[in-house]
């Protein structure tokens, strides 16, 4: 992904919410990323304390207690934060000491209807408010199109991304007419990376899931009709714990092991071809097989890709990283919610 961004003359600031791993964040920066995005304060705190550079908090902070935590982090490391309302600036400004500067980008709604300012007038108002505070610097815009990332068909995904591009272009033009230059235009993602880097107004993309991939992104098609150019690297190791029903076995991975907001695992290693997974409660899952297949025996270990990588990682305190030579390392999962 870093190579794709470099060829396009853009930057990559991948999302830590995918992996929540200091080790992976360092590897991403070593590979060419300019920094790391964080979705939560615990992620931001963990990355800052580990010395990770170029940190961007992508979710607006409103709670006064969280503002205090944010200031404490800003004293340790330079950070950029996304805001979408003047009250967030008004809560932040009085608490920033003279020796701390916080960069701000305005989060804009580009169609997801989740967070973000909805018109250029309000964007300019926030930029003007920021300019009145010496310790806060206006740095640009964030326009994350999460609603576009998982559109399977490339042509349809491109059409929706073009709408995002048009809207962001209008916001950028409005800012410039009012004397504000958005040095940063951050957004994009794994599903739209090819489109984002080809013609969107982003200066950087926030793609995160590419590092692991999952069942949902496994369905996404690129311009040629093939899969995205990233391999599945995150798997759930599970064991067959019951095999009494013909045509299926029970494994010890249920809703406490796999996030439920995604399609079933699309890669299953150690089971017959055509095996399918289904949730069967907190601790259990069912693997069913085509008629005539030889089911795995009791105690067999099976590797499965995951439903949705981000929330699945958040369920665990550690990942086991296996090198090509078989070396095993334990990588802590940090900043868990």
Cα radius of gyration in angstroms: 22 Å
CATH C-level label of the largest domain: Alpha Beta
What's the order of the H and E elements? Answer: HEHEHEHEHEHEHEHEEEEEEEHEE
The helix-and-strand class reads alpha/beta
The named CATH superfamily of the largest domain = Alanine racemase
Spatial order of the strands in the main sheet? 1-8-7-6-5-4-3-2
Number of helices: 9
- Distance between the first and last residues' Cα: 27 Å
What is the CATH topology of the largest domain? TIM Barrel
Number of strands: 16
> How many distinct folded domains?
2
**Regions with pLDDT < 50 over 5+ consecutive residues?**
none
Mean pLDDT: 96
Summarize the biggest pleated sheet: 8 strands, parallel
CATH architecture of the largest domain: Alpha-Beta Barrel
Describe the structure.
With 337 residues, this protein is an alpha/beta fold. It folds into two domains: 2-213, Alanine racemase (TIM Barrel); 235-305, Lyase, Ornithine Decarboxylase, Chain A, domain 1. It is built from nine helices and 16 strands. The chain has helices at residues 2-7, 22-30, 41-49, 64-74, 86-92, 120-131, 154-177, 193-199, 309-313, and strands at 11-12, 36-38, 55-57, 79-83, 102-107, 136-143, 184-187, 204-205, 235-242, 248-251, 268-269, 276-279, 285-288, 301-305, 318-322, 328-332. An eight-stranded parallel β-sheet has the order 1-8-7-6-5-4-3-2. The two termini are 27 Å apart. The model has no long low-confidence stretch (mean pLDDT 96).
């Amino acid at each position: 992904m870093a190579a794709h961004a470099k060829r396009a003359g853009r930057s990559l600031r991948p999302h830590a919410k995918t992996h929540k791993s200091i080790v992976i964040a360092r590897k991403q920066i070593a590979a060419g990323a300019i920094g790391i995005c964080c979705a939560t304060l615990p992620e931001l705190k963990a990355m800052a304390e580990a010395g990770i550079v170029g940190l961007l908090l992508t979710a607006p902070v409103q709670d006064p207690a969280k503002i205090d935590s944010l200031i404490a982090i800003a004293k340790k490391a330079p950070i950029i934060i996304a805001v979408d309302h003047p009250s967030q600036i008004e809560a932040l400004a009085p608490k920033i000491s003279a020796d701390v500067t916080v960069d701000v980008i305005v989060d804009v709604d580009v169609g997801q209807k989740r967070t973000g300012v909805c018109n250029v007038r309000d964007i300019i108002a926030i930029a003007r408010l920021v300019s009145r505070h010496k310790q806060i610097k206006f740095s640009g815009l964030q326009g994350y199109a999460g609603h576009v990332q998982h559109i399977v068909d490339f042509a349809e995904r491109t059409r929706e991304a073009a709408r995002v591009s048009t809207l962001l272009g209008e916001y950028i033009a409005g800012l410039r007419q009012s004397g504000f230059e958005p040095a940063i235009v951050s957004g994009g993602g794994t599903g739209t990376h090819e489109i984002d880097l080809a013609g969107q107004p982003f200066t950087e993309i926030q793609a995160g899931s590419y590092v692991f991939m999952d069942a949902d992104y496994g369905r996404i098609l690129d311009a040629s009709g093939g899969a995205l150019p990233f391999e599945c690297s995150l798997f759930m190791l599970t064991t067959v714990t019951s095999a009494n029903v013909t045509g299926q076995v029970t494994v010890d991975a249920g809703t406490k092991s796999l996030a439920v907001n995604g399609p079933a695992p699309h890669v299953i290693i150690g089971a017959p071809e055509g095996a399918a997974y289904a949730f069967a409660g907190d601790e259990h899952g069912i693997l069913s097989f085509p008629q005539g297949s030889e089911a795995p025996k009791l105690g067999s270990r099976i590797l499965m890709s995951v439903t949705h990588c981000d929330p699945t990682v958040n369920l665990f305190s550690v990942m086991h990283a296996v090198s090509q030579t078989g070396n095993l390392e334990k990588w802590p999962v940090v900043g868990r919610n």
